[in-house]
Amino acid sequence: MNTATEANFDGLVGPTHNYSGLSFGNVASLNNSARSSNPKAAAKQGLTKMKALADMGFVQGVLAPHERPHIPTLRRLGFSGSDANVLEQAAKQAPKLLAAVSSASCMWTANAATVSPSGDTVDGRVHFTPANLVNKFHRSIEHETTGTILQATFKDDKHFAHHAALPSVDHFGDEGAANHTRFCHGYGEQGIEFFVYGMEAFNNSGLRPAKFPARHTLEASQAVARRHGLSPDQVVYAQQNPAVIDAGVFHNDVIAVGNRNAHFYHQEAFLDTAQMKQDLLTAWGDRASQFHLIEVPSASVSVQDCIQSYLFNSQLLSRGDNDMVLIVPGECENNPAVWAYLNSLVAGNSPINEVKVFDLKQSMSNGGGPACLRLRVALTDAERNAINPSTLMNDALFGQLNDWVDKHYRDELHEADLADPKLLIESRHALDELTQIMNLGSVYEFQK
Ligand SMILES: NCCC[C@H](NC(=O)CCC(=O)O)C(=O)O
């Protein structure tokens, strides 16, 4: 029998993880700028979550971090000389630019790409489009390396199709799977791909947020759906409520999460909730009674509580039919309204039967919870067997990566440390070794 499963590929936190306040519209990023970070703890918190999921029986992969500070970008922007000179000049003349090219933001792999499983695509392959992340300069430099790492992980073109990112311009602002969910009966069957956008680029009369940017456009999602060869009647689009973007919900995965036959979302998440429900149920077809719309009312959990706790930035994982576990960050347990809601949810008769809490404080302080840290890839057995096996989490890889973090990572980093030429050298040594551990080949510019 062809049993398909959902794999989660988490971003391994890079050695330059820091808080620089780079993401306008992301409340945690802005509130924690100027704080010092702990890259070693950040990487270990992520590894602990990955290992726990692997131990629970889920297929768990690892995506390598990018080379940071990114000297090639600084050269493109006019800095020259040796790498040490480039760094020194940038630190002196444009420290905020240096912070931007040093961010470890590629750890949030929900934003790495949009993935369409083979059950949904016209050619029966798994399709990947790296997200251009054009709305934030520090993230707009990720997609090329992301594409290279995805290709080194999902190598076999019989099974996997890799596209380039969409044009890097606001009209096609694409934040990848942070705004994309798939509903299905079994992971190998044809599913419904649900794309959520912040605004329409080519329709000036459409509603838009006023204070914070809409990072993702409808036109970007439509282009991804065309490229991936999705069947139009299996695609649903919905606009995010501009008011929640203005409150700090910069990605839809801060206020909704879906899996198989369950959509778990906040009452205020969408501009037109009734339409969203109707469109999903129409696409689902018969057996509509098996589709769970779990709407959390504002009276139980406010939008502010969603943003503070990251209740919906959780991983909704299937252990079997109608049996799901929700992976939430520690902040949910510390928020009385959210914790009370979660306790009533698991006691009720939704498919969500258990909640597991993880400490991801280092990532959360930049606005990244459990769901931001993972890219979901539904895979058939044949596709799973075609993945680079050195990227899959198990006891051996967990041990190796923890030792590697202990050897190379600092336990304190301030924005000012980004100018330290030793940090650049340390990071390159670390990544060079990582490409051997994970059998990636030469994926970084400094290796070429
Ligand atoms: N899906 C979660 C993404 C979080 C990410 N934060 C950041 O890039 C903050 C980086 C900083 O401020 O140092 C973002 O906003 O895209």
Structure description:
It contains 17 helices and 15 strands. A hairpin with a 2-residue loop joins β9 (about 255-260) and β10. The mean pLDDT is about 95. It has a three-stranded mixed sheet with strand order 2-1-15, with helices on both faces. The chain has a three-stranded mixed sheet with strand order 3-4-5. It has helices spanning about 25-30, 40-55, 70-75, 85-95, 95-100, 135-140, 145-155, 220-225, 240-245, 275-285, 305-310, 330-335, 335-345, 360-365, 380-385, 395-410, 420-435, and strands at about 5-10, 60-65, 115, 125-130, 160, 180-185, 190-195, 235-240, 255-260, 260-265, 290-295, 315-320, 325-330, 350-360, 375-380. The protein is α/β, with parallel strands linked by helices and about 450 residues long. The longest helix has 17 residues, at about 40-55. It binds N~2~-(3-carboxypropanoyl)-L-ornithine. The site of N~2~-(3-carboxypropanoyl)-L-ornithine (SUO) has 21 residues, from loops. N~2~-(3-carboxypropanoyl)-L-ornithine binds near residues 23, 103 and 111. InterPro entries: AstB_sf, SuccinylArg_d-Hdrlase_AstB. Homodimer. Catalyzes the hydrolysis of N(2)-succinylarginine into N(2)-succinylornithine, ammonia and CO(2). It catalyses: N(2)-succinyl-L-arginine + 2 H2O + 2 H(+) = N(2)-succinyl-L-ornithine + 2 NH4(+) + CO2.
